Amino acid sequence: MAAEAPRRRRRRRVLSLVPFLGCLWLLQPAASSSSSSSRSSSSSSSSSPQQNPPPAAGPSVRTFTPFYFIVEPMDTLSVRASSVVLNCSAYCESSPKIEWKKDGTFLNLGSDDRRQLLPDGSLLINSVVHSKHNKPDEGYYQCVATVESLGTIVSRTAKLTVAGMPRFIAQPESASVYRGNSIVLNCEVNADLAPFIRWELDHQPLFLDDRVFKLPSGALIVSNATDEDGGTYCCIIEIGGAPKYSDEAVIKVLPESESLLDLVFLRQPSSLTKVTGQSAILPCVAAGIPTPFIKWTRNEEELVTESSQKFLLLAGGTLKINDITEDDTGTYICIAYNGNETIETQADLTVQAPPEFLKQPSNIYAHESMDIVFECDVTGKPAPTVKWVKNGDVVIPSDYFKIVNEHNLQVLGLVKSDEGFYQCIAENDVGNIQAGAQLIILDHDVAIPTLPPTSLTSATTDHLAPATTGPLPSAPRDVVASLVSTRFIKLTWRAPASDSHGDNLTYSVFYTKESINRERVENTSHPGEMQVTIQNLMPETVYIFRVVAQNKHGAGESSVPLKVATQPEVQLPGPAPNIRAYANSPTSVTVSWGTPLSGNGEIQNYKLYYMEKGTDNEQDIDVGGLSYTITSLKKYTEYSFRVVAYNKHGPGVSTQDVVIRTLSDVPSAAPQNLTLEVQNSKSILMHWQPPPAGTHNGQITGYKIRYRKVTRKSDVMESIVGTQLSQLIEGLERGTEYSFRIAALTVNGTGLSTDWISTETFESDLDESRVPEVPSSLHVRPLVTSIVVSWTPPENQNIVVRGYAIGYGVGSPHAQTIKVDYKQRYYTIENLDPSSHYVITLKAYNNVGEGIPLYESAVTRAYTDTSEVDLFVVNAPYTPVPDPSPMMPPVGVQASILSHDTIRITWADNSLPKNQKVSDARYYTVRWKTNIPANTKYKTANTTTLSFLVTGLKPNTLYEFSVMVTKGRRSSTWSMTAHGTTFELVPTSPPKDVTVVSKEGKPRTIIVNWQPPSEANGKITGYIIYYSTDVNAEIHDWVIEPVVGNRLTHQIQELTLDTAYYFKIQARNSKGMGPMSEAVQFRTPKAETSDKMSNDQALGSAGKGSRPVDVGTDYKPPMGGSNSPHGSPSPLEYNMLLVIIVSVGVITIVIVVIVAVFCTRRTTSHQKKKRAACKSVNGSHKYKGNSKDVKPPDLWIHHERLELKPIDKSPDPNPIMTDTPIPRNSQDITPVDNSMDSNIHQRRNSYRGHESEDSMSTLAGRRGMRPKMMMPFDSQPPQQSVRNTPSTDTMPASSSQTCCAEHQEPESTTGSYLPGSQEEETGQNLPTAHVRPSHPLKSFAVPAVPPTGATFDPALPSTPLLSQQASSHPVHSVKTASIGTLGRTRPPMPVVVPSAPEVQETTRMLEDTESNYEPDELTKEMAHLEGLMKDLNAITTA
Asked: At 849, phi and psi to the nearest 5?
């Protein structure tokens, strides 16, 4: 029997209970006597004879009849067209009649050809019918057993479910799996059919094991795949009839891969709801290379699956939980890891429990008119609902049948028809159970068995002793209702005539409503009591009462029935209907209501009660009408209102409270604590707090800021911000004082404003990235009870100082600290002790932190010193009170830096012996902190030695340390502070906020911006930019772009159009390189702009690799020239340039001829002698072509001396040029040597320019620039010449200087670079002209006077070619010959000069050029020049 175990437990508790109804026992009552008691109570049933009370003599007691179910129907799943049996079997001495209910209605099995009743009571359903629109067999079934003249019982309810048509929701798909990994094959059907799924591999049944597992949903998991797992899979549904096959899926098993694969979940667990006792399966399958491992946690505690019967780890990592209990509820997390990465997923398991009886109802004996209670206590999850059934019919609660204590059934005033079987049925979402008991009502002359039951009410549980034979009392006399109310009646009486004293008599009062045959009973509480109060009566109702006396022999005669009517209910008004309240204004509310429906007479007035929400102070107002407006309320505050109607009888029933909030208004107070903080020269930061609570008068929607200059007639500016409590005001003027005020806003408008407060912006922008430096001076002037402190600000005025912190104390400056404004330069420390030694420290601070302190000490004066004492101090006698002497603070505190995170602190203690050994119980407290940020708290540590190792510090951070000694209850003040900065460490975080943008007008150029790493751990000395078109490429294959210094932006040029580039940045400091930032992707534009294309076309034969050099935004076109926005002249400008070039060329030649003729005519023999002397002096510097027999210099450059060679090509076709800052004047050009002279000097015969940090870079890395000189062969303005001045300094002998400097003419030192031709670098395919040195004139360097007013405006920062060395000689400006064909544009041709003649030789050659030629010689030279021009034209044209 299913309840056998509970029955055994109940036997141990000495509770004799039988499931549902109990057993049949014969109880013999005690022998009747003349005074047998008629008061009785029921007895609980027994399940064994041994636990029944012994039978008593007298009339026999009817016994309880065993009547219960042996088998009850269970929930069943069936399929269409099959047969199903619902089992049911009941036991009773008389064979019960079995019937069935479906969905609460009896089935007519006699006329049903498909349903039939089996002999044991089970129900057989043949050929189950089930379709989409016809489901006659599906539903809830209940077995009903009936025994005539005994009663009826019902079984639990069973659900019959019919599976639908087989249909696949998801089918398996072909896939591949690496050997050793897992794979999941889906096969999802409707939940009813999942148990009918099986799998086939290659058309053969698939056998499941620990490695191959089928989930409850039907999906198949294959873990640790092997070659045998490859093949064709198919999912099959078999529910009778022809099986249904899914699509076939081909699984290929691949060999193990050496490359890594990311971890992914193939199947994740989903949240489940299970019933206790069941098992739960949480699937979790992951795949990746290396093969992942799976572990599970529940509520963040790892589950142990090894050797566990509770938790089993199945194929692929699936978790199975056996025999679920409520303790298994929780969140389960599946964690997959393979050594390279970890992923996780989670699901919740909810456990439900079917109903279970904690206490079942017991059989009860009772007499008529008694009250009884059937007890029933159940548990379950969710909490079960309970209903009661009597003889198969549901008990409907009424005045006499009540549900008490949630589940118990109380029956009042028993009548004979109440006999029968009562069942308690408990039900929740996961099940239902039932238990029953029998009620037997005995005759009044039959005593209830003496075993005290627990199921009788207090009115019927007294005096259960067995009755004896004897005389019974007569009827009580003079029964009257001494007190009658609306809900109760008090009865009194006199003792029966047979027993006038009545001391041993007890009484029972029986009462019932008139015309109702159900009588109830109320017993007196103790013998001799002759009154009772009957409660819980109905108003204005007639009741019939009678009283029966009882003695030890039983109940006597009944008194004459007494009719009493209860008083009618007082006629008070009911609640007023339709109460409403609405706000009229921020301070008033109107409340309205209707006339009570049950007025019970004329309404005299109403009382309106109202109260502020959250308080307990209710106020009331008398109202004559049906509405009232209450004023003087608080703004934007919730109030509750209720109304009570009054008539002549008094107040009626109150209405429900209605809550309304008054309307909002503008704030009635200004914001609080407005402060101003100057950020820089153009911005001020405002801080404030909201208005005080209770003054908002609504929801604050924002704040209105007003500000103006503190000058007359200045405009007031307004700004409305949100609900934040700070705002940065920008765009202010430097060094200007501004006033600010602020007001709060609501939807109604602007509230009160604060007072104006002012502050002044800085004169210039200062640095606030570091703490201020130490103040430049500190002076103290001690008085008797005060010290005047004065100071001067730090010498470095470029760091923001927001104020000064003054610390002071006796022996240590850490006792008290005062902060003053940054404008203040003195402060008086008050309330000091006379004749005391004070140590004072001064530190400047800003938002970053406090700077290094400056220390000073002073001794306050004694009272006897009246020179500085105020009058009131002199007249006040000073009587010092001796204090216990404090400990002396440690001295000589030193901080020794050991590493980037460790500093050793050492000190001395003057209170120790000379050997500085600690022999007592003193200890030292070391405290330290950094001043960045300013609000950093101290950290402390205790030690008993004179040193301490402070670890865990931040790299490259300044710390301050101080020490205190403690001995017993005495402690010293803090010592003087020591400072130490930890060593640097490589950056531990990458640069942040990396962004890449395209440069406007240059689609091939991008700008990379970033911010320094948050953990730089030292001064950043540079950055390295890595970029590549393949984000997965090895890092050594990325292009490296170094950036020197702490710049936060960089340009990269000549990228490929419409290409995705990836950028990473790492920072470096003196200790090494930090981590790389995450890759940032940027795609270059798809096409170049039209300006860029025209620029490329203007380059002519510059070649494929040519590109412009970006000269930056500061570049300005040289005077006399006109450039298009990108350096490409228009056709009109080309014609003008050609005309200018030809004109200036002709003028230059004419000037050269005139000067030469003039110089020739002035040549004398005396000058020739001087020249000869000069030549003899320079005899040691013979130069080819300098001997007197040499022919006049030929300007023809022979073909063997002019080699056209291509420039070295970069390995990458896309060279990158870093933007170079443009120097604004000649002082911006960095000299090559260390000379302090104002002129720029260069002695080396090298034309290599100065390499700045923004030098050329290519995709292959950086490479040096070959020495070269740009010789333009296009039409450019003549004044745009390369500064290439031959030096005229330092001759070997003084005579050389004398004779050679005589004919040098001063020339302007100003010159200009080639802004036109050199702003665009020569293409890679251009030939390079290598000119071997010969006569100086063969370099085309013809001395000439530069144009007046020419400005020096270099386009590129490079070292001037052949710069000057001596400041005492004027600088020659040499123009480069510009030779070209009219109407044709040529790119600049670099002329590489491997070596140059010595400076002295060059000077002498120039002199020979000026004074040795005759007119006929010049004519020949001009002819040679014309030939050279034609030859060069032919070469360049070819």
From this structure: 160, -170
